[in-house]
Amino acid sequence: MTTSDNRTMTANSIFLPVGYVDIEATLDGGQAFRWWPTNADSGEDPKNHGDHAYRGVVGRRVVNVTEADGGLLVTPVDGKGSEGLSHSMLDYLGQDQDLEGFRTRFEDDPCLGPALRGYSGLRVLRQDPWECLFSFITSSTSNIPRIKLNVNSVAKHLGYSIGSEEQDVTFPEPEVVAEAGEQFLRDLGFGFRAKYLAPAAEAVSSGRLRLADLREATYSEAREALIELHGVGEKVADCVLAFSLDKPESFIVDRHILRALHRWYGVPEKASLTYAADWARDYFGDHAALANQYMFHRERLSRRASEWGGTHVERALPEDGN
Known about the structure:
It is built from 16 helices and five strands. The chain has helices at residues 3-8, 23-27, 85-92, 99-106, 112-118, 129-138, 144-158, 174-187, 194-206, 211-214, 219-227, 234-244, 255-265, 273-284, 288-308, 312-315; strands at residues 14-16, 35-37, 53-58, 61-68, 71-76. The two termini are 34 Å apart. β4 and β5 (71-76) form a beta hairpin. With 322 residues, the chain is of the alpha+beta class. Among the domains are: 3-95, TATA-Binding Protein, CATH 3.30.310.40; 129-244, Endonuclease III, domain 1. 49% of the residues lie in helices and 8% in strands. The relative contact order is 0.11. It is globular, with a radius of gyration of 19 Å. α6 runs antiparallel to α9 (194-206) and α11 crosses α12. Strands 1-5-4-3-2 form a five-stranded antiparallel β-sheet.
């Protein structure tokens, strides 16, 4: 263990031998929205020092997750022991994804090869489907800081405390959100998204939409079921399918990903997002969700280096010429 690992280890800490995981990019890069750098209250930028540790809620447990040699150190910080924590964290981290097959297949790919070498620690999470659905309906015409603000606001108001920090709360069940209603969500700052979130909560709480069953459904069946909800389009559906419903063939397309597909794979520049997603699913197959995350991460860091400069240049790949 490194020095920083020893500082966070307790008698209840567990080590997950999962290889290198970039927890900043994986936990706080746009898949999930309730993880916080452990030094967030200090006013420091966690990117400026070596302690890569995040605190968050998984199910009904509050944990600190720290990068360690060969894996992750997970420490419960909710006053409970570590029983069952290894299983739940491995499940959350998507332990069954075919990382080795993905790396072997795309090691020479002009886009993914450099991304795999430069950002080898990315994972696709396996989150709670209801929290994931709520989060990505919230994401419509928004950005990561605002999504985090909104999602954590509803958790603080409607969830219940399970730890010592303000953000240590469970995510509210769909029944609770449905009972709170649209106006309550508007008052919390969700704006027009409230008119989609309240009916989604009603659909899930009533059993009309059985999210757990969608894990066993085909990709097409699950996607169709999600898109029946008002406010859930193809992009939101693919986010939920990739990050919570065991659909590794899901591929999320926005204008940045479309530009990457055009640049690296010759997808027509003016292709529709639907065409581009269909093309990518056919090309990447069951590695589509992983390919999507590596492509997105490379594009995002390259764009930040180009637009913002400074320390962002160091985080972009040398191949991207920033």
